[in-house]
Amino acid sequence: MNYKDIINNLKNRNFEKTYLFYGREYYLIENTIKVFKESLSEGMVDFNLDIIDGKETMLDQLISSIETLPFMDDRKIVIVKDFELLKGKKKNFTDSDEKYLIEHLDNIPDSTVLVFIVYGDVDKRKSLVKKIDKNGIVFNCDKLSDMDLFKWVKKKFEAKNVIIDNPQIMYFIEQEGYRDKSSEKTLSDLENEINKISSFVGKGNKVSNEVIDKLSQKKVENDIFKLIDYIGEKNSSNAMKILNDMIYEGESVLGIFAMIARQFKVVMQVRQLQTEGYTSKVIAEKLKIHPFVAGKALKQCNNFSDEVIIDMLNYILESDYKIKNGLVRDTLAIEMLLSKYCQKNIS
């Protein structure tokens, strides 16, 4: 059974007794939780939906939630997130607890739907995984296939009331690199890019390859590399130009802060591995980053000491807090970063 069939069955209130959704495509997992919630009677959700932290729950708490009858509805849904036994861990459960739970899955009340959610991989050898599969559905929320991805992207653009032809959809997908084996991009990342492009062109207008290139994540990453390079070179005027262009093209200041912070953390990791004698290729493999990113980080090591990087990361963290709490304007915060770590243009 594919994902679409599972979702359609849930919307039609055609439930299995148990489910396990796992994988790295969190967008699909979160959408599944949303559909489960919407399957309950409106106004009764608070009474008939239990969301349990699987890392902290104990056996008696879990069994109690499973056996509690629904209130003014014919169905109760119990969602257990990141259940430790599905990952081969046993912090809160003994062997006898695990055995009892597996046996108890055969006696779940007809009014209860038990859903396990794991953000990442599960240990498929576990008896619990096999029991869930026997009694219901185990589904790996992995990346969408080419055709499903095309349909999903097309639907998202159409929902934003912008015009995009099929060749441009294919071009967008290719530029984003979602299907690349090494890519860590998710549907949430693609949705953010679709929203940014749609906002830029405006309702009723057409998305072109030029617009996709202008706003693509690859361009944003390159802009971040350039921005950091200019900061390292103390070239304030070029750094400010790159920053203003990014903001004009729809990048949020908090997003820019996050990307700067992420790259500086990579720089520190790369520096450490370099001192241990690893080559650029091995460093990229160890950190699971693109060789180009590793190469840029190696060059940036020469412009920033760990002390300066830590100081900048602390500044970004403090600014993030101030922006979110209305204590400083976002554009002022990032302009202050440039003025603090860039001297006047010396080129």
Element order: H for helix, E for strand: HEHHEHEHEHEHHHHHHHHHHH
Gross CATH architecture of the largest domain? 3-Layer(aba) Sandwich
Share of residues in helices: 55-70%
Identify the CATH homologous superfamily of the largest domain.
Answer: P-loop containing nucleotide triphosphate hydrolases
Q: How many domains make up the coordinates?
A: 3
Number of strands: 5
CA radius of gyration: 24 Å
Shape: globular
Termini separation (Å)?
A: 62 Å
Count of helical regions: 17
- Name of the CATH class of the largest domain: Alpha Beta
Task: Please report which band the strand proportion falls in: under 5%, 5-15%, 15-25%, 25-35%, 35-45% or over 45%.
Answer: 5-15%
Question: What's the arrangement of secondary structure elements?
Answer:
Elements: H1 3-11, E1 18-23, H2 26-38, H3 45-48, E2 49-53, H4 59-67, E3 76-81, H5 95-104, E4 112-119, H6 127-135, E5 137-140, H7 146-159, H8 166-176, H9 187-201, H10 209-215, H11 217-232, H12 236-248, H13 253-275, H14 280-287, H15 291-300, H16 306-324, H17 330-341
Parallel strand pairs: 1-4, 1-5, 2-3, 3-4
Helix pairs in contact: 7-8, 11-12, 11-13, 13-15, 13-16, 14-15, 16-17
Organism: bioreactor metagenome
Domain DNA polymerase III delta N-terminal: 19-141
InterPro entries: DNA_pol3_clamp-load_cplx_C (IPR008921), DNA_pol3_delta-like_C (IPR048466), DNA_pol3_delta_N (IPR010372), DNA_polIII_delta (IPR005790), P-loop_NTPase (IPR027417)
